[in-house]
Amino acid sequence: MRTALLLTAAAAMALGGCATMQTARARLVKATPRCEDQTVQIYFAPDQAELTPEGRMVIAQAASNTRACKILGVDVLGLADGAGQAGANLELSRRRAQSVTAALAANGLPSAEFKMTAAGQAGAVTSGGQAAPLRRRADVTLHLAPR
Q1: Which of 8, 30, 54, 125 is deepest in the core (most CB within 10 A)?
Q2: Which residues contact 96 (CB under 8 A, 6 or more apart)?
Q3: How far, in Å, are 23, 43, 82, 116 from residue 130 at the CA level?
């Protein structure tokens, strides 16, 4: 009798835990999306403006995260390392920004909202004269609001 009572109590607790988990899951699934500004960084191979598979994945995820939000604007800033000639680095950062902008548009973001800037190697050298690391990228800021 005591064993049956313990088994019944254990089953009730287990089922109660399942119900609690289902309720918590339902709250998460029904939660409204967070439509706050977000910034992602897209990295490139040295001297390249073609998106890497990882860069395409970051763009696709960022675009997916914005589906339920109103897009107020998208800022794309192309950057380059401090090594090399300034003119070549400015052109490279421009091509990087264009590559990212095209990929964002292909993922459904409204291209009319894009603001594209190329910084070249500006800011790529620290005050101590050292090259800033990881400047082979484009920074994408998505300005979002709830619908």
Answers
A1: 125
A2: 42, 44, 49, 78, 79, 80, 118, 137, 138
A3: 54, 20, 9, 27
Tokens read off for 67? 């589906």
Q: Which sign, positive or negative, has the C-alpha torsion 89, 49, 136, 107?
A: positive
CB-based contact 81:131 (threshold 8 Å): yes
131 DSSP 8-state letter = B
pLDDT tens digit string along 34-81? 899 999 999 999 999 999 999 999 999 999 999 999 999 999 999 998
119, 19 contact by CB (below 8 A) = no
* pLDDT band per the 50, 70, 90 thresholds, residue 19: low
Question: CB neighbours (10 Å) of residue 59?
Answer: 23
- Which of 62, 57, 55 minimizes the C-alpha distance to 39? 62
Q: Where are the alpha helices (DSSP H) in the chain?
A: 2-30, 53-65, 86-106
Which residues, other chains included, contact 97 with Cβ-Cβ below 8 Å and sequence gap of 6+?
76, 77, 78, 116, 117, 118, 138
